[in-house]
Specification:
4 helices; about 0% strand; globular; mainly alpha; about 65% helix; single chain
């Protein structure tokens, strides 16, 4: 059952699917058809590449957090939240693409999220 909050996740997945369809139409060599057959080596490589592109974008987002070095004596207080979010969204789009490629629905993802959330809360209660 989808909750009101899930509508946004569903919308995000639909936007990603539309982009992927448009991309595949313009540049067919860039994407495999989806859902991919993850038992095939080529599909595994494609999914792995996509995840790593998302990780690269996460690193780009971190470039906007500049005052983290413990050895630095001067404070850097400027933060371009808009630029950070743009890179973060780029990363998230790659991760959403993986869900699309694997045929994961917003409901499946939400259920997996809730399941893992329960696990980490249980660990916290038990001083894991």
């Amino acid at each position: 059952m989808l909750y009101m909050e899930d509508c946004r996740l569903e919308k995000m997945l639909e936007l990603r699917k539309k982009f992927m369809k448009d991309l595949a139409a313009k540049r067919p060599a860039v994407l495999q058809r989806w859902p991919v057959d993850i038992s095939k080596k080529e599909s595994q490589q494609h999914v792995r590449e996509t995840v790593l592109k998302g990780v690269e974008e996460m690193f780009e987002s971190l470039q906007h957090i500049r005052g983290w070095k413990p050895h630095r004596l001067t404070e850097i207080t400027e933060f371009d939240k808009s630029a950070f979010l743009e890179e973060y969204v780029d990363a998230f789009n790659y991760f959403l693409s993986v869900l699309v490629m694997l045929g994961v629905t917003s409901e499946e993802f939400f259920e997996a999220y809730e399941h893992k959330d329960k696990i980490i809360h249980d660990r916290l209660k038990k001083d894991y």
